[in-house]
Amino acid sequence: MTKEEFKAFFESQCIPADLPFDEIAKRWSTINNNLDTILPSKLFRFRKIKRDEKGKDYVLDSLKSKTIATCSASCFSDKYDALCYFDENKVRDLIVKLRLKGQIYS
User: Fold this and answer.
1) For residue 40, what is the DSSP state?
2) Which of 70, 49, 67 is nearest to 59 (CA)?
């Protein structure tokens, strides 16, 4: 599959939120299988190192602390930079549950 074919295929996909989980998983599996045909063996992401007005650099900080710096997908110039979108409330609830279980420390 070429990149152009994958683009057309991906743009034709629709996964309604009310689908049963097994159907959602099946559709994502099809997308991932097709994506695998066009991915190079290695991916690199170059990030500009730039300090903010307070001297903080989030890219360097995340490398030093082995964490992942994130931003909203709406900030990306390429709409395919982020294929996943997160429900902030569900993420917050999960973090709270893990903290209560003692699996995350503040």
Assistant:
1) -
2) 49
Backbone angles phi, psi at 101, to 5 degrees: -80, -5
Q: What is the DSSP letter of 60?
A: H
| Integer Cα distance of 53 and 64 in angstroms | 20
- pTM greater than the 0.70 cutoff: no
**Which of residues 41 and 35 earns the better pLDDT score?**
35
For residue 9, give the nearest of 37, 48, 44, 51 by alpha carbon.
Answer: 37
Q: Which residues contact 26 (CB under 8 A, 6 or more apart)?
A: none
CB 62, CB 68: distance < 8 Å: yes
Residues contacting residue 9 through CB under 8 Å, at least 6 positions apart:
1, 34
> In angstroms, what CA-CA distances link 22 with 9, 64, 74, 86?
21, 39, 29, 19
Of residues 64, 6, 63, 62, the one with CA closest to residue 31: 6
